[in-house]
Amino acid sequence: MSSFNGKTVIITGGAMGLGLAAAKVLAQKGANLAIVDYNEEALNKAKADISSLAHQAKILTIVADVSSEEAVKNYVDKTVAEFGTIDGFYNNAGIEGKQAPIISYDIEVFKKVIDINLLGVYYGLRYVIPVMQKNGGGRIVNVASVGGIRGVVNQMPYVASKHAVSGMTKNAAIEYGKDNIFTNAIAPGAILTPMVAEAFKQVNPADPKAAEAEYAQRNPTRRLGQPEEVGHLVAFLLSDECNYVNGQTIAIDGGESNLYGNS
Ligand SMILES: NC(=O)c1ccc[n+]([C@@H]2O[C@H](COP(=O)([O-])OP(=O)(O)OC[C@H]3O[C@@H](n4cnc5c(N)ncnc54)[C@H](O)[C@@H]3O)[C@@H](O)[C@H]2O)c1
Question: 3-class DSSP state for residue 33?
């Protein structure tokens, strides 16, 4: 099992869901964590939760909105000031936006999804990569989605932004592989986090649990994923054991994105 002793990892969107689950896995493996989120209350609760699991963990929390370039530069600077460098970057913060058909999608929501999911990921790469170059290398995991490899009905801006994440991952991989910086993306399917719970409320406001059960039936595994399952994949991709994997978008979806027709 890989150790992260003495390693520093930044996690954006780390107060809840996939970010928090990975933070717990990494803290238990000895990483120093800089956890970034724009929800201060959830961030404080996350720090307490992680500390109760991993008493020794050094955790820096930073309130920041990843769609602000200045805020991104600031969270990178603060992390370097606290821990000296950055070894791993989990570029995870993202939103779904409201579900609606293409021809009536709210343009302001569209722009917000792009600002957070696309530009937020780009700003992170822009400011973290120079630190990793000085450090002699590093590992980056961007968060795409199955919506970054397939279309998803009523989620055009989300799908556009996540395809962009997959594309930016390829570019970072080919531009900075020479610096021993390996950049990959993950493409989760439906993983039970607050974001997905909210999506099921949009699909069936009267009975979100029914929407969840129906969705799970389509998956080859007949269930949704758990955030910890994604956390373990992320920990591997950020570890020293993950070498020579670069520019890939790795689905973690129970195999669902391979499905054509009825399961
Ligand atoms: N859960 C899934 O099934 C699933 C599937 C595919 C992709 N994803 C992606 O995984 C990532 C995490 O999703 P999740 O399900 O954990 O969502 P979530 O809503 O449960 O948690 C996201 C966290 O990010 C934070 N955040 C959102 N926008 C932010 C911003 N602009 N600045 C700083 N923090 C911000 C939120 O406050 C929250 O703590 C997202 O990029 C999402 O698109 C999730």
Answer: strand
